[in-house]
What we know:
This protein has 451 residues and is of the alpha/beta class. The protein has 3 domains: 6-106 and 261-339, Rossmann fold; 117-249, no CATH class; 345-450, Helicase, Ruva Protein, domain 3 (Orthogonal Bundle). It is built from 19 helices and 13 strands. It has helices at residues 6-14, 21-38, 42-45, 63-73, 98-135, 137-142, 159-171, 207-214, 226-241, 244-258, 282-294, 328-332, 345-353, 359-368, 378-394, 401-410, 412-417, 430-442, 444-450, and strands at residues 53-56, 78-82, 147-148, 157-158, 179-185, 219-225, 260-264, 297-300, 303-306, 311-316, 336-339, 373-376, 425-428. The protein has a 5-stranded parallel sheet, with helices on both faces. It has a two-stranded antiparallel sheet with strand order 3-4. It has a two-stranded antiparallel sheet with strand order 5-6. Helix 1 (6-14) packs across helix 2, helix 13 (345-353) crosses helix 15 and helix 15 (378-394) runs parallel beside helix 18 (430-442).
Amino acid sequence: MEQLTPREIVAELDRYIIGQKEAKRAVAIALRNRWRRQKLPPELRDEVAPKNIIMIGPTGVGKTEIARRLAKLVEAPFIKVEASKYTEVGYVGRDVESMVRDLTELAVGMVKGEKTRTVQERAREVAEERLLDLLLPAARAATPPGFERVEEGSPVTSASETREKLRKRLHDGKLDDRIVELEIKDRAIPMVEIFSSSGLEEMDINIKEMLGNILPQRTKRRKVKVREAQRILAQEEADKLIDMDEVKSEAIRRAEDSGIIFLDEIDKIAGREAMHGPDVSRQGVQRDLLPIVEGSTVNTKYGLVRTDHILFIAAGAFHVSKPSDLIPELQGRFPLRVELASLTQEDFVRILTEPQNALIKQYVALLGTEGVKLDFTEDAVQEIASIASVVNQATENIGARRLYTIMERLLDEISFEAPSMQGARVDINAAYVRERLQAIVKDEDLSRYIL
């Protein structure tokens, strides 16, 4: 993080997301401020609150992608949740605190994965010794100490020589298809279902762990190939080498200091109170969200997690409502607001060709696996972008997601026939694009259902 200046963060986001400079600058500054906060003296560090952001813009312009790429860039725990699926207590829906529990669960997985990689080599070595023990049990039982057989009919050699010969064959992959019998822990526990309201999510009881501790540990024997046995044994040994208490404490620290929660569809709960229908719970959801965003302590199965320094990025189209329709207390917790512009035809051209994960690059690579070479001309790219822009204006504006629909429709026939076209070269030009799509675009009713 120390090397990632706001300018470099924006440059990295530019590799995947076209335009939206203002939003990129806002998230880059918010991310850099987190690093700056870590450098402050302890007495001041706790006083610096994260500058939460509201992104305002239509669907498909890059709101979620900006937040996701940002989290991936700094390897921070990140979850995306829809604000509309939470409801106030008393209504059907999830408890808002569950987003913090989900974030902590994700952080535990991340930290455990990192710890596993550090002990992987040691775990692999121990697993290899266990596997060699499994490959030699019959010989050990049939011969005096110090002597064993590799296979039926082979000369008797010392145990160490036999073991090293087997090790070499194992490394060379010659034993991959041999079957061995493992004794592994049976993780299955009785199925328990709890029908509850969202309020019972707060129960500090992990039913699975509780039953797992009460019931006796069971094992089962399983026959697997050597290559699969290596993976299973290495995972078992890695789990033994990892200190889970250390993993939990590190995960909680990371969730608290680096966690990012992306609250999508916040505009769906921002409307003024209505006198009928499901709108009755909108302000209730906002009031339940407020303490989480403001800073509170949430009880998770890994321990208490404070939300004071989690970065919240909210997003919404705000077609019907506007940010000022949120309750004032919640508005105050999102001091930064950035508006994302609708995408133009020129933006679509750049999205199709420039990013590292550009759509055209994806389709060329996908069909290349079948031996089909796709070649898109410049006028074809312009035509695709033009059609996407026209359809977005004529029907619902879904931004860059329209390109996915159009590309699938455009390459439908080639994708279907690709296995029988091995070695073929297909030139996609403007005429081909018009031939495949123009009839649908002209019929507005048809385009509503197909594009």
